[in-house]
Structure formats: structure tokens, C-alpha cells
Amino acid sequence: MSQTPDLKGSSFPLTVLHMYEHNTDSAIRYLDEKVAKAPAFFKAAPLVINLSQANSELDLAHLKQSIINIGMVPVGVTNCTNKHLEKLAREAGLAVMTGTNRPDKAPVAITPSKIIRTPVRSGQQIYAKDSDLIILSHVSAGAEVIADGSIHIYGTLRGRAIAGASGQAASILCHNMQAELVSIAGNYWLSEQIESHFWGEKVILGLTDQTLHCDLLNIK
């Protein structure tokens, strides 16, 4: 029996570019540098443009095309309170999305943790929607683990770990830090940004005032 198409609500981790005033050139240089450091992570990655601090002189059409040229996919704008900018966004073919950082936004309901008992191999992606993610083994280089909540890895983290994917505070715990990338609520470090004294150690990462921080875990 044939089935008709169906629309359902869902949530996906999205990278957000925060614009300040109308300097598109500096924003594109910044994105170029980030993509050059982690091309596999950012290739064809969906991008949302936060306009909460942008002004009406921002050239959204130019910004959209520049983002496409560096290999990312601009899908829409958020936190746009300027009607002129909203009009320009629609004319540029960008979706106008409801902001995710409003103080009155209700937190995402967290469901029971998703538990993975086997190693996460290169090329695999594991996503724990609306929950914490617990990995009882290793995460290989080239693998990606994502959770709307926190991530606990009871082995070596060599791939990418993205916690708080829905935008809320979370933490990442691993028993051997060798990550390609770690991210919490859109704030991330690449491997070279992780301080050497945390490398190969048991650590916990958190987020304070939109800044990542890392601490050693004194557990056996």
C-alpha cells in the first residue's frame, strides 16, 4: 500500500553565526578560517544567521552567497527584530526562524539516556534526541556523537562530541580526551584548542557564560 508524504516536527543540531553590525567581510574571513581547520565537520553544514545585533545595512544576499561559496548551507535567520532585515532575508531566500535564545523559552524535556554499548566507528553518527548519551566504549576518529543533553564516554574520544545540540547547557565527560572537536550549545574547540595537559586524560567539559571550560576528573 502506497503512503502519502507526511510532515512531522523534529530538531537538528545547527551552527549559528552571530552577526554584529553589518561587517560581512569579517564574518566571511572568520568562517573561512573555521572551515579550513575542520573541513569535514563544516562541509555542507547548515548554518543559521543570528541577527539580534545586526543593523539594517547588512547585505544578506551577499552574505548568503559568500557562505555558499565556502561550502556551508545558509538556511535562515533568527532573532531578527528589524523589519527591513526580515524583508531582505525573505528576498534572499532565507527562512525567518524563531530565536532559540529567548529567556522565556521552555527547556527541552529530557527523556531517558540513550546508551551505546559498542564502539562508535569512523563514519558513524549517533544522535540522542532530547536526552543524554552514554557511550560505554570508544569513539573513533571520524565518528560523531551528538546529544541534546550531556555526553558520557567511558572510553577514548577520538572523534567529535556535540552536547547541548538543542542549545541548552550540558557537559561532556570522557575517560581519555583525544577529540577532533568538542562542542556544547554551539560553542566548540578543535583539537588544537584543547590544552595539552588535558590530552589523554579523564576530563569533564562544561559551559559558563557561553565559554567552554575543561577540568580533570580525579577518578579511577
3D architecture notes:
Belongs to the MinC family. Pfam families: MinC_C, MinC_N. With 220 residues, this protein is an alpha/beta fold. It is built from 4 helices and 15 strands. It has a 6-stranded mixed sheet with strand order 5-7-9-11-14-15, with no helix packed on it.
Write the layout of secondary structure elements.
Elements: E1 15-21, H1 24-37, H2 39-42, E2 46-54, H3 60-69, E3 73-78, H4 83-91, E4 95-97, E5 111-116, E6 125-128, E7 131-135, E8 144-147, E9 151-157, E10 160-163, E11 172-177, E12 181-184, E13 187-190, E14 203-208, E15 211-216
Parallel strand pairs: 1-2, 2-3, 3-4, 5-7, 6-8, 7-9, 8-10, 9-11, 10-12
Antiparallel strand pairs: 11-14, 12-13, 14-15
**Per DSSP, what share of the residues sits in E-state strands of 2 or more residues?**
35-45%
Q: What's the total number of strands?
A: 15
Cα Rg: 19 Å
Work out the count of structural domains: 2
Continuous helix count: 4
Uncertain segments are 100-106
Largest sheet: 6 strands, mixed
Taken from the alpha-carbon principal axes, the silhouette is: globular
Q: Which CATH architecture of the largest domain would you pick?
A: 3 Solenoid
The CATH topology of the largest domain is Pectate Lyase C-like
Helix content: 10-25%
Which sequence of SSEs, written as H and E, runs from N to C?
Answer: EHHEHEHEEEEEEEEEEEE
Distance between the termini: 56 Å
The largest beta-sheet arranges its strands as: 5-7-9-11-14-15
Structural class: alpha/beta
Mean pLDDT: 85
The CATH class of the largest domain turns out to be Mainly Beta
Subunit structure: Interacts with MinD and FtsZ.
Protein name: Probable septum site-determining protein MinC
Domain Septum formation inhibitor MinC N-terminal: 6-74
Keywords: Cell cycle, Cell division, Septation
